[in-house]
Structure formats: C-alpha cells, structure tokens
Amino acid sequence: MAPMYDPTLTFARVWAVLSPEVVLVLTGFLIMVLDLFLPKQKKTYLPVLGLLALAVSFGLVLTHFGKTDQLANIMVITDDYGNMFKLLFLAGTFLTLLMSHDFAQHVKIPKPEYTYVLLFATVGAMFMASALDLITLFVGLELLSLSSYILVAIHRSNAKATEGGMKYLIIGGVASALFLYGASFVYGLSGTTNIAVASQALYGLWFQYKVLILISFVLILAGIGIKLSIAPFHMWTPDTYEGAPTPITSFLATVSKAAGFAFVFRIFIWGYSANIKEWYMFLVVLAALSMIVGNLAAMTAKNIKRMMAYSSIAQAGYLLVPLAVLGHAKGEFNLWQSISQMVFYLAAYIFATAGAFAIISVVNRDAGNETIDSFAGLYKRSPFLAIAMSFFLLSMAGLPITAGFFGKVFIIFGAINGSFYWLAAIMFVTSVASFYYYIGVMKRMFVDFETALPVSAVRVDSSVSVTVWISLLVTVVLGIVPNLLMNVLNNLKWFG
Amino acid sequence: MFTLLTVLTFLPLLGAVILFFVPRESRSLIRAVAFLATLGSLVLALVAFAGFQSGSPDMQYTVNKEWIHISNAFLDKSLAISYNMGIDGLSMPLVLLTAMTSVLAVVASWRIEKRAKEYFIWFLILVTGMFGVFTALDLFLFFLFLEMTLIPMYFLLAIWGGERRGPVAVKFLIYRGLASVGILIAFIGLAYQAANATGTITLDVLQIAQTFKQAGADVISTGMRQGLFLLLFLAILIEEAFVPFHTWLPDSHEQAPSAVSMVLGGVLVKIGAYVLLRVGVGVLPDAVQHYGTLIAALGVINIIYGALVAMVQNDWRRLLAFSTISHMGVFLIGLASLKPEGLQGAMFMIVSSGLLSGLLFFLTGAIYERTETLEIRELGGLSKPMPVLSGFLLAGALASLGLPGMSGFVSEILSFMGAFATFPKLAACGTLGIILGAVYLLWAMQRTTFGPVRAAREGIRDATALEYVPMVLFLAMIILIGVYPAILGDLVNQTLQSLVTRIGG
Fold first, then answer.
1. Which residue of B lies nearest to A380 if distances are taken between CA atoms?
2. Does the pLDDT of residue A2 top 70, yes or no?
3. Which EC class is the enzyme in (chain A) (predicted)?
C-alpha cells in the first residue's frame, strides 16, 4: 500500500512515531552545547547523560510495541520488527558507553564528542531498522557509517586507530556507493523509492528485466555485506577491529552489525520477496562462506581483537542462515519463525560480544598488549572476569547453558525444517571447529598460570563490572530458559 | 521439580557454586564442602536404592517437565525439550557407582594442594555431569550433561596432570569431543526417524524406543536403522576407548592425578557402555543383532589386544588402562550375544570394571606418592615396607584377572556364557584373554611387590587411616558382588528382560 502524503508534519506526529530517536538526537545536541559551556571537571558527567537518554529511549520503544504507525513524509514506519531491533541497538550502545567509561580514564579521548557521536550513530541504526524508503534507509546508513568512522579514529594520537579508521572510511565509502548504485536500478525500474511500492513493480517487471533486478540485488547485497562483514566482503574487519578503541570495536561488532541485519531483512523481504526463489542461493553461499572463512581465519589469529573480528564474521554467517533458508519456506509462518530465530541469536550474540569486549579492554590494558596471551592466568588475577569471559566464549561457541547455544539450536532446527540439511551441517561442523579457538582462550585463562605476565590482581572499574554483569545475566538466563525471549518473539506482530 | 533425582544430580553443582565463594586459603573448608556435597549425593543414591522396586522394569523416581519449546523444529511441528529424569535397572547401579566413586575420589584428593579450590570446583561440576548422564531420559538433556563432563575433565587433566598434561588434555578433548558429536548426530537421526514415523516429535528415549519397535521396516527402513546404529557405535568406540580409538585412554590415565583417574576409569569411560545399552540395544536391537558378529569380533580384538599390550607396559597406570580396554572387550561380547545372561554379564562388567578402576587407580596413586614412580622396572620389593598397600594391590589384581569370589569372575562368566551360546568360535578366542590377563597382572605384581627392596625405600610408610577408607570400601563392594551377585543381578534383571523381549519382535 502506498502511504498517504501527510502535508502537516507536526511535532506531535513525529513524537508519536519517532520518540526514541528524538530523545537521542536532542540529548546529543544538548551534550554538544554543554560541552562548550561546562567547566572541564564537570564534563565527565556528560556520558552519564548519554546513558540516561539511552535508558529513556529504551523505555519509549517498549511503549511502542504492538502499534504500527508511520510518518509518510519521511517514510518511516514503526512496527514490532523495528522496535525489537531498536531495543537491541539501544542495549548494545548502552553497554558500549558503559564500558567506555573505564576505557576513557586511561586513554585520552574527548568524552563529550565520543558520547554524542555514539548517540547519533545509534539513531542512524534505528532509522535503518524502521525506514520504508530507500532514501531514508540510505540516510540512516550514512549517519551510522559517518559516526562510526569518527569513532574508530577518535583516538587521534594512535597510529593504529588512524589506520583502522582510514581503512574503514574507504571501504565504507565503497559500500555506500555500491548500495546507492543498486538502489538507483530499483528506482529506475520502478520509478519510486518506496520499498513497498517498488517491490510490486519489481515483481511485475521480473521477466522483462530479470538481469537488471538481479544486478541491483547483488549490488545492494555487496554494499550491505561490507557492513555485515560477511565473507567475501570482510577484508576490512580484522584491521578495523584491531585498530579501533575496544569499546568501539564492540559497537561495530554489535550495533553496527545488527543494523545491517535489520536492513537486510527489511529490504530483501519487503523489496525482493516475490522472487526469493531466484536469489536465495546468493545468501546461502555467502552464509556458508562466512562460516567457513571466519572460523578458519580465527584459528590463526594471535591478537584477541582480530580473533573476535574473524569470529564475528563467522557469527554473521550463522545469522544469515535463517534468511537464506526462507528460499524453501512453505508459508508466512516460516517467515516469522526465521525472524524470531535471527533476533534471538542476535540478542545472544550482542550480549556475549559486548561482555567479552568489556573484559578484553580491561585485560589488554592490564597486560599492556592485545595478544591472546594477555589472558594467561586470568583466573588467578581476577576469577570473576575469567568465569564471565568463559560464559561469553561458550555462548559464541554455542555450548550448552548459554544463550548462544539455543540461538544456534533454533537456527539449525530452522534450517533442517526448511530441508537445508547441508547448510545445517556446515553450521554444525564450523561451530564445532570454532571450539578450538574459543576454548584456546579459556585454556589460557585457567591453565597457563606459569606464563602469566602481570601477576597482580586486575583492577576492575565498576562500570566494567556492571557491563559484564548485565551481559552475563542475559547470557545465562537465556541459556537456561530461552523461552523467556522466544515466546515473546513468537507472539509479536512483526510487520503490524 | 525438587525430586530426589534432581537434588542428587545437582547437589555437587551447588557445592561447586558454594566453593566459588569460599576463600582460596581455607583448604579444610573447601575439602569439607566437596566431601559433603558428594556424600549427600551418595546418601540420596542409597535412599533411591533402598526404595527401588527391582521387580518393575519401568523408570522410577521420574520427573518430567517441559523446559524448552521450539515451535517449528521439523515438518513445521513443534518440539518440546523436557526436563525428563528417571532411573531403572540400567542406571541405578551406575548412579550408585558414580556416587561411591566420586566420594572416594574426593577422599583421594585430600592431599591436592595446587589450586585446590579450582580443582574441587571442576571436580564437582564433573560429578553433576556424570550423575546427569545416567539419570536423564531426554536425549537433549543427556547430551547437555555429556558436555558437562567433557570440559571439567579437560581442565582437570590440563592443570593437575603430569608432565605431558597439555597435549594429553587436548587429545582427550578432541577424542571425546568427536565422540560427543557422533553421538549427537546419531541422536538427532533417531529422533527424526521417530518423528517421521509417528508425526510427533519427541526426545524421550523410551518413546523413541517404542516408536522404533512398533514401526515396521516399511516406515523406518532396515538400512536406516543399521546406518544409525553404525554411527552411534563408531562414536561409542571413541567414547569408550575401544581399539583402534583407544590411544587417548592410556595417555590420560598416565597423566591424570590418581583421584581424577579413579573417576575417569571408574565412571567416565562407562558412559559409552551405558549409551550402547540404553540407546543401542534399547532402540535398535535389530541392528545390534545384525551386527552381532562384528561387535563380538571387535570385543575379542579388544580383549586380546588390550591384554597383549598391557603385558609390555612399563607403567602401572598404562597397564591398568589397557587392562580396562581388555575388560570392556568382555562387555562387548556379552552385549553382542543379546542373551539375558550375556547382557547381565555386560552390565556386571561395567560395574566391576568401574569398581576395579577406582580401587587400582587409588592404589597406584598412593604408591606413587611414596615412591614417586610407577615404572615397574623402578619398583620392586614393595611388600616389605608397604604390606597393606601391596596386599590390596594383589587383591585388586586378582579381582581383575577374574578370581572366583570377586566381581570380575562373575562378569566374565556371565558374558562368556552368553557369548558361547551365540558365537562359540569367537568366544573361545576371547577366553584366551582371561589367561593373558592372569599372565600380565601376576607378572607385574611379582616385579612390583617381591624381589629385593631398594635401599631408598626402606623407611616409607604404609597406608594411613584415611587411605584405608577407599581401599576397604572398593574391595568390599568387589567381593560383595563376587560372592552375592544377586545384589546387582536383581537390580538389572527386570530391565534387561524387557530389553531382550524387544529383540527380533
């Protein structure tokens, strides 16, 4: 259905649809202004303001559940699908900002800028989850990307960070260009940028312009594949993850990636769904490739952040499986199932990753390097961190009593249910192979006491403790009673 | 929810959680918590044993609650994973064995000083995993507990093992991990075949067995059954350290601390045997029958090969590991016979071998503490300074080679009776193993305990009061089963009968 053009764009309408985003944007500007007027020692409280805004925004998103509304002028919709993703983004950013508090005490980064740029990046991600129009989508994507470039390179005196930021900027620019080029084909064929309208046009023109439509599909997939860091578009990931400040790495691995997935589902399921049988194999191949490449490369990594980068490539592969499986879907029922599986796994992945990066930032600083060996004997230095880290690693590896395990179980069952046996098998085998490097980190923490470089106890800032505790609780609770979240997901009215 | 089995299974885990908050320095408190947690489980296991209806083949003390709901697992139907526990004649003896071995292993760990707190935490997690494996009736739950035994064991080997602990722990992890994967795939296959046949998905092992029994060859093809069994069997060969996948077991035993060895040989290596009985014979009896000769032949190979290799070992722990492999070969031929007495012998062999592992690995640990070597060449004349320990070692060796009046004899007799009835030629070859067993054990005993005493060992102490506890208890159980086999036979009989009636039916 084409949305009605609504000539009166009142604040009330904007607030009704976009209240969570509005809160974040206004807080961002407020912090900007305060940054100019506040005395230096007061500025340390600005990140707290950011945390507050995120919490308020989270609450506002919760009030939106079960309603659908749209803002026709800027083509933004609010529905449960977008709301679910917004919750994940806000949680991811909240944890990022929380762990940054500790990080910023030791590394000279401008806190106020850092905070508001992070808020703007989140707003970009939220737009990607709720836009209904290619232009709005692109604006959201760019807002997220530009903010991310700044954040990666925000530690200006560090050569590695600058290099990572530069690489990310160039590759990100290419990604945006690819997406735009692909979107231009859609516009040229259908004469509209509204995804819902365009999808009908694409369906009608399929036989006539099959090649062009497929070209547009591949271009958009390549552009967004870079954001998702799926193989073969993953080359930037290890360098950028290694160079970026650790909290920002966490942001890239959680929020930025989740935004990409929100976007992929929205555009491919809405825009191209009519001909899913023709293109799902692309996704299947990319999923399989990501799982294989990511896990194999992670085994060779010496630097923990690089290892996490490769691991996140593999995780992106797992996350693509539910979407790829839709090629065999028998009904709408399967679509809701697939989205639920993906969102569940994404939740498991986001909390495990954020928790792991919070620990990584502390441990690396304590050891003075970023190798995996910096974890040697961590159990002796900080039992709590070692045990929490084990849970996060096990969740990513997909071992029982963690959220990641059930996330994988749901996805594998979904793949088998769609009779994609070989894809399920690849997922299973690569997951088993991934134990090698996840357990390798555990081995260093618990076994290698002799080679432990720092022998004193790790000092853990309370902000990191809280980050780790939140992540740990979610990881373990969802690992014991996954139906807490799964039942909610299964009963959502995703697209109204 | 808080039924007997739940408490029994999770009490050690609760102990591990409590231990986490106990300061590292208070070693006596740490030991007390570990001891009480395992002792509590032992008491509960005895309570369960006292109230066990041995006349009924059904599951007892059952608890069944839906735990996780997956809405479209297969054919767009939903799957419920249940917290489904219960014990019958197959699991009761093994639960008792686990309870006893774990308490005594805690006693044997009394002197652990290196990172004691972590040691007991890992150990207690491992114990919960072992209890869970024998009490879970849901395939998924079973697998969860199986994984719960894997990781703690890896750390117990990797941190508290001997000189080559690192590589050996990794080897253990890889072998057992592969076995777990194989078992998991076989389970999934079984569940799907059953779901295909009935249209409802269940992971309850008893229901799956029922489905397989009722479904004709047109519903679940014979080829599929045999394929699934072969996959399961292959996984169990690794899990159980059968030739040719046995190399991880001697290595692990050689490197593990003696208390860990007690649990490894006493319980952990019996999990595969239990799965073979519960799932192999329970769900796929036709396939077991079809491959009976193959299984029995493998059993005979294990008996002979284990015994021959044990003969040339120079380290007591490796010798005992190969002796275990040889014993479990007897289990295989008993099982392959599918005769009531053969299956009973197989069950006896699991328990007997478990008790013997517990006793002998405890003894070798005690000797190692005093002599700092277990190389048979380096030992000699131990009966002079340590008459008690040597005496118990001799008793253990005699039980191991099947002296009448001990548990080993009963197990071997029953297994071979079953085997002779089904495959006489193979069984005849297998009996050679009994002779070989006598040879390597007595020869090793003779070199260890007799002969001249080394000057360095003149003044070493004999067994302490604390060490008497495990030795006496294990030996008492071994002799009890030997002279009064009915105590175990009555437990397992009904369940085995109901298994046997399925065969060919």
1. B115
2. no
3. translocase
CA of A337 vs chain B CAs: smallest distance (Å):
8
Q: Indicate the residue of B20, B151, B158 with minimum beta-carbon distance to A447.
A: B158
Residue B126 — φ and ψ, nearest 5°? -60, -40
Nearest Cα to B103, choosing from B46, B165, B27? Answer: B46
What 3-state DSSP class applies to A401? coil
- Average pLDDT across chain B, whole number: 90
CB contact under 8 A, A400 and B20: no
For B171-211, what is each residue's pLDDT tens digit? Answer: 999 999 899 989 998 998 898 888 888 878 888 988 898 88
pTM: 0.91
Contact A446 B79 (CB under 8 A): no
Query: What secondary structure letter does DSSP report for A53?
Result: H
Long-range contacts of B428-433 (CB under 8 A, 24+ apart): B429/B300, B429/B304, B430/B299, B430/B300, B430/B303, B430/B304, B430/B329, B430/B330, B430/B333, B432/B303, B432/B304, B433/B300, B433/B303, B433/B304, B433/B306, B433/B307, B433/B326, B433/B329, B433/B330
Cβ contact B153:B268 at 8 Å: yes
Hey, is the C-beta of A409 within 8 angstroms of any chain B C-beta?
yes
B373 pLDDT above the threshold of 70:
yes
Angle, vertex CA B155, rays to CA B154 and CA B157, nearest 5:
70
The answer to whether B147 contacts A399, with C-beta atoms less than 8 Å apart, is yes
Q: Do B70 and A446 touch (CB under 8 A)?
A: no
**Residue A390, min C-alpha distance to chain B (Å):** 11
Residues 6+ apart with CB under 8 A from B451: B380, B381
Q: How many residues does chain A have?
A: 496
Task: Give yes or no for A383 touching B (CB within 8 A).
Answer: yes
Task: Give the span between the Cα atoms of A189 and A192, in whole angstroms.
Answer: 8
> What integer pLDDT is reported at residue A201 of this predicted model?
86
**In this structure, how many other beta carbons lie within 10 angstroms of the beta carbon of residue B245?**
18
Nearest to B267 by CA among B401, B116, B149, B186: B149
CA angle A243, A407, A484 (to 5 degrees): 115
Tokens describing residue B225: 């059954």
Q: How far is CA B138 from the centre of its chain?
A: 20
Chain-chain contact of B73 with A337 (C-beta, under 8 angstroms): no
Instruction: Report A:427-456 residues touching B (Cβ under 8 A).
Output: 432, 435, 439, 443, 446-447, 449
